[in-house]
Amino acid sequence: MTRAENDGESAAGLTISENAYRRIRSDIIFGRLRPRQKLKLDGLRDSYGISISTLREILNRLSSEDLVVAEGQRGFEVAPVSVENLKEVAALRLLLETHALEQSFAAGGVEWEGDIVASHHKLATLERRMATGDMSQTELWKRYDWEFHQALISACGSQVLMDTHAAIFDKYLRYQMIALSHRGDIAAGEHKILLQAALDRDAPMARAVLERHVQGGLDHALATGTIA
Question: Which residues form the HTH gntR-type domain (predicted)?
Fold first, then answer.
């Protein structure tokens, strides 16, 4: 489950404030709250069922994650997007993920392999469905995409690295959802090669494919013309 997907789901034991934070964060990541959208406290209070004071705390927290912009006395708005920021996010994702891949390939065991195979199966199933023109489950597709990439690096041995990568991946995902970027068979083929490289412990191959994968996603998102 993506961090953004997890943020959007209620969970037993969560406080009202934490649950609202996760819902608002997920709505930003998946584009339900659009870039530069004004976040009016009265409207958010009604939508998320929390107090104004709690909303301010949540929006300040999201501001620290660069997902919301605080406008002083004028309130808050969803963080804008830009070509420059997308390029920075993509580069940072690649830096973190390639390092984690190498560590994970060296340490992963049989259970790690099983997790990779299972996560790829789910992703490939959605990719085949989307190849027929069915785009009705784009959020589920990105959830499975995240799960596969997280599975690949899950044996890296560093929770800090995993958490940092997850936060950057969510920002990269936000751009993909805004651009509705889907590269079809090309991306699906790259995922398949990454799967085999993991099973073969071929870190140089995985690194080369991941570089092509992220750059291809970046180029495709920019080509849509939806990010200025």
Answer: 14-81
